[in-house]
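Run: sequence + 6-O-phosphono-beta-D-fructofuranose -> complex structure.
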Amino acid sequence: MSKRVAVLTGGGDCPGINPVIRAIVRKALKEKYEVVGIKNGWKGLIEKSTLALNLDSVSGILPKGGTILGTSRTNPYKNEGDVEKVKANFKSLKIDALIAIGGEDTLGVADKLYKEGLNIVGVPKTIDNDISATDRTFGFDTAVNIATEAIDRIHTTAESHHRVMVIEVMGRHSGWIGLEAGIAGGADAILIPEFPIDIKEVCALIKRRHNRGKTFSIIVVAEGAKFKKEGAEVLQEEKLDAFGHVRLGGIGQILGNEIEKRTGFETRVTVLGHIQRGGTPTAFDRVLGTRYGVKAMELVMEGEFGQMASLQGDKIVSVSLEKAVGTLKTVPGELYDIAKIFFG
Ligand code: F6P
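>> structure
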């Protein structure tokens, strides 16, 4: 009887998930494994909601954004009895191994379940690029490219109208998208969660820039950035999700109002939001996703459970899930210092 591998995708979707699923299915079928898709992340394993995966189901999905399996932010450790349901369904679905594609929350659950005896491996997915023990998560490259294109477009209208343009990008606890899109788009200031905003400094640099003849400025701010004095994130909603996260958003508008008030320069705000997460993955993310999918299947075949596929330099290696979810990977000071050279 052939072995059965299951796949699930949890947390926020991101471009590149479908290439991972396709690679897992293609590699698995070659190795005579049967593949079952679990719908909507951990929710599907609690509710026993599945989808058979075969050559037909993954045909044509390589360039498609989102996830054909659906996703959710369900945490089985949140409600009593759900972990037991996950374990029971793992057994009744005759799953020999599960590949969990997710960010820190999904992989955190994967690590706990592995330690409780389930055969699980992980694939690091998030546009935020904040998972430790890997150089890159897939989806990040696409998000950076989308944000960079947006900054380029905003640049021309900023210049025509002589305005300060504030662009709010995603990034809850880490500023990777803001940092890389900001550098690539030539932003005049990049404000990210790791380095609190000094509003006086930001306004001073805009004024200095305008004094040297520039009549517009581009300010990139991550949704999780905070002001130095107040020290709190700006929330859209205080309600917590199953992993204890609040919904962020709104810092761009507050910052824009403050800049206009303090400098007198006309200011506009654009929130990029979920545009950064939608649509077709870049070639880089398609290739990275494909390599991760193949590696995850190899880990399954070798019985290397509790491990995650990881990019280190040019190589795809494996690291323990525990190491990957232990601490969030944030932007280091030396990288931010490079961005700062171009401020103002
Ligand atoms: O985790 C990825 C992410 O896109 C974060 O950057 C953002 O804070 C969050 O998801 C938004 O989540 P949702 O789509 O549930 O609003």
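>> summary
The domain at 140-278 is CATH 3.40.50.460 (Rossmann fold). The pocket of 6-O-phosphono-beta-D-fructofuranose is lined by residues 11-12, 103, 126-128, 170-172, 223, 247-248, 277 (CB under 6 Å).
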